Amino acid sequence: MQSRCEESRRRDSGTRRKRTNIARSLGENHLGDRQDLDLLGNQDELAKQIVATGKPTVVLLLHGRPNSINYIAENVPAILDGWYLGQEGGPAAADVLFGDYNPAGKLPITVPRSVGQLPDYYYQKPSAKRGFVDGSVLPLFLLAGA
To answer: What is the pTM of this model?
Structure first.
């Protein structure tokens, strides 16, 4: 019995050379508390260089906290937010990326644009916050149903 990964590899082996899309995994493992929400290291710069190629791009974001991904959200047409996927995460992500499964999840949290928006409460009206001189008070992605 073949695993889903083996099936995906077999199905895709004939078109591998023709592919013009780029799928890139970004994010982090749990490393403890951090002072900012940016992606670690040079991952933002890597994303910018990949987008600069002009090829259709998908970001698979693997992480355990909301990250500040403003550039990616503005310039990459598809973001698959995986959080910590677990044991079957690889085959599950492959199913989504190859179009074998259409995820229909709702975002259970609010993703802030920057650390300056924290804490970001879902039960607080936006008018209860003061504005920023250099940016929006609106979160990058809003809690589903809020």
So the answer is: 0.70
Shared-domain flag, residues 97 and 111: no
**Domain assignment of residue 136, given as a range:** 106-146
**DSSP alpha helix (H) spans, the chain:** 4-12, 43-52, 70-75, 89-97
Quick one: which of 52, 51, 50, 26 has its CA closest to 40?
Answer: 26
CATH of the domain at 88: 3.40.50.1700
| 44-55: average pLDDT | 93
d(CA 20, CA 54): 10
CA distance 44 to 58: 14
Interval 51-85: pLDDT, tens: 999 999 999 998 888 888 999 999 999 999 888 88
As a whole number of angstroms, the distance between CA 14 and CA 91 comes to 19
Cross-strand pairs, 25: 60
What does the alpha-carbon distance between residue 56 and residue 133 come to, in Å, rounded to a whole number?
Answer: 34
- Phi/psi for 23 (5° steps) reads -120, 125
Is residue 93 within 8 Å of residue 80, measured between CB atoms?
yes
